[in-house]
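Tokens in:
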């Protein structure tokens, strides 16, 4: 390759956006953050007088507040511009050429995408019929660990996007014991953690003897309803946080964002109430879908995976778009042929989606 030749990179990640009335394709919160939050934020921004200075490089106040929320110290918290940036920094620190990164598909496409960008050896294994990590995979990894080898990085996504299921805690514990034996990082992406039934943060606070400590990655983009602000974080062992600090650019987290995150945490009660409303909307979606000719998967997230029975998934997606309803099309994904994913929206959005779908399915 000549100096300056364009590097060959994987195609960029994107989720198509169309101008429609009902947008249920990217799993954001259907509600904006509370007015009290945006007002406090505006007032606080007016008080940011020292913008000539770099922000706190360590984002210590924000990390301390997040640590208090999760029952860990600030040395176990790392923040970045969206959880995607946390994932990227993790692979800058722990991935690279000749380092194996393991993902179980179908799962969040960014995990594999960032692994390719950082030139890791990406290993893709299929999920089982329930779309969970197969028992045979757990056994294979345990045997590998016994022989002293283990992927440098293993990604779990729980609840998993785009399928919706949480990984059972015993499976995660088995992987952590294997990783503890052979060395290896286990990342649990909990972008939808607030909608799920358990959190691997418990295993960061109290790792089992001999087991590895997971890296749990969370975001303000979904349950916290501030996707526009781009803020995410990891809860991990202190040495992982040190590695993340070393792999991040200096002053990567601006003063505004540090402030916005700290203020958001003071509205945790409203966040929990919003999660309850979204879970209720999800139940409406699940009940409505059960009445239609579709296959539906159980979900612990703020979205539902479904497959129109005997119908072309793309045609159904198109029919919804024609009725101004946008959902996520997954029809081309291995083992999700013909599937669509719908985000739990407001009650009105859910009603319009179900009506449109009933019409399309005729
Ligand atoms: C939406 C989502 C994220 C969020 O990424 P941000 O960069 O924090 O907005 C992370 N992981 C998964 C699995 C997601 O679905």
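Residues out:
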């Amino acid at each position: 390759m000549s100096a300056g030749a364009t590097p060959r990179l994987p195609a960029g990640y994107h989720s198509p956006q169309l101008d429609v009335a009902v947008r249920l394709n990217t799993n954001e919160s259907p509600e904006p953050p509370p007015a009290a939050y945006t007002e406090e934020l505006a007032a606080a921004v007016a008080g940011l007088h020292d913008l000539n200075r770099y922000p706190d490089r360590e984002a210590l106040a924000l990390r301390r507040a997040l640590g208090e929320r999760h029952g860990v110290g600030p040395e176990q918290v790392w923040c970045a511009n969206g959880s995607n940036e946390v994932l990227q920094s993790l692979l800058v620190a722990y991935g690279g050429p000749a380092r194996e990164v393991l993902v179980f598909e179908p799962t969040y496409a960014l995990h594999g995408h960032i692994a390719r960008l950082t030139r890791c050896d990406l290993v893709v294994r299929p999920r089982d019929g329930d779309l969970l990590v197969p028992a045979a995979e757990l056994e294979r990894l345990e045997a590998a660990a016994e022989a002293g080898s283990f992927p440098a990085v293993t990604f779990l996504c729980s609840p998993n996007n785009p399928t919706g299921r949480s990984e059972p805690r015993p499976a995660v514990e088995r992987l952590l014991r294997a990783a503890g034996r052979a060395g290896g990082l286990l990342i649990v992406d909990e972008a939808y953690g607030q909608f799920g039934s358990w959190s691997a943060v418990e295993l960061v606070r109290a790792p089992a003897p001999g087991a590895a400590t997971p890296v749990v990655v969370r975001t303000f983009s979904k349950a916290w309803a501030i996707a526009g602000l781009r803020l995410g974080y990891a809860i991990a062992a202190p040495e992982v946080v040190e590695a993340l600090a070393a792999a991040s650019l200096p002053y990567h987290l601006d003063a505004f964002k540090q402030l916005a995150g700290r203020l958001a945490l003071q509205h945790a009660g409203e966040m929990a109430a919003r999660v309850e409303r979204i879970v209720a909307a999800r139940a409406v979606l699940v009940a409505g879908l059960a009445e239609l000719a579709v296959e539906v998967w159980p979900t612990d997230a703020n979205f539902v995976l479904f497959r129109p029975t005997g119908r072309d998934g793309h045609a159904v997606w198109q029919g919804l778009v024609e009725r101004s309803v946008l959902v996520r099309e997954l029809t081309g994904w291995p083992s999700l042929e013909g599937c669509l994913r719908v985000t739990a929206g407001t009650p009105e959005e859910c009603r319009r989606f179900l009506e449109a779908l009933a019409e399309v399915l005729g």
